[in-house]
Design a protein that fits this description.
The longest helix has 24 residues, at 160-183. The chain has six helices and seven strands. It has helices at residues 21-33, 68-79, 112-121, 143-154, 160-183, 185-192; strands at 2-6, 39-41, 44-51, 54-61, 86-92, 100-104, 127-132. 41% of the residues lie in helices and 22% in strands. The protein has a single domain, classed as Peptidyl-tRNA hydrolase (Rossmann fold).
């Protein structure tokens, strides 16, 4: 059993935000595989299916981004799996829009959802599929003002041009996850990083 969690914030208000690209990608994967998010468990909307002859649970945590660890840890306990069976899809400000990076472990890069998961699981050893959304150009002088500008950017909707890029990259994210499960980390990194 594998758990694939796309991170985001629940609700229509956030649905087209840059910060919700994890939700968008896991929803695309679900549509590709014919999986419906028809269950509520572990503070998440979930759907069950198969990828590369492995049983998978796709999840969209409903705890809001900064508390993603609450949902992910509950699902891991409920499914009786280990963090090494977890794949998290999330936005990354340090990658240009449309770039993908797959890795196992590492730090959070300042991503509050990943911080929450690491804190709840007590480990960094889970798979991440990072989807680039770019970083805003900020002219602010203070660190606090720069942080506010970054938060406003992440919680803003994609521009029409960015949305075209994201729409093109979502099938690649789905293929990267299939590759990761079928062929392993090295093959997925070589093909999609």
């Amino acid at each position: 059993m594998k758990l694939i969690a796309g991170l985001g914030n629940p609700g229509f208000l956030y649905s087209r935000n840059r910060h919700n690209v994890g939700f968008m990608c896991v929803r695309h994967l679900a549509r590709t595989l014919g999986i419906r998010f028809d269950k509520k468990q572990g503070h998440a909307r979930t759907g069950i299916g198969n990828i590369a002859r492995k049983r998978v649970v796709l999840a969209r945590p409903q705890t809001y981004m900064n508390a993603s660890g609450e949902s992910v840890s509950a699902l891991i306990r409920k499914l009786n799996i280990t963090p090494s069976d977890l794949i998290v899809i999330h936005d990354d400000l340090d990658l240009p829009p449309g770039k993908i990076r797959i890795r196992l472990g590492g730090g959070s890069g300042g991503h509050k959802g990943i911080d929450s998961i690491i804190a709840r699981l007590g480990t960094r050893d889970f798979y991440r599929v990072r989807v680039g959304v770019g970083r805003p150009d900020t002219a602010e002088d203070s660190a606090a003002e720069k942080d506010k500008a970054v938060i406003a950017y992440a919680l803003s909707d994609f521009t029409p041009d960015e949305r075209k890029i994201i729409d093109k990259i979502m099938p690649d994210v789905s293929q990267a996850i299939v590759c990761l499960l079928a062929e392993g980390l090295e093959a997925a990194m070589n093909k999609f990083n």
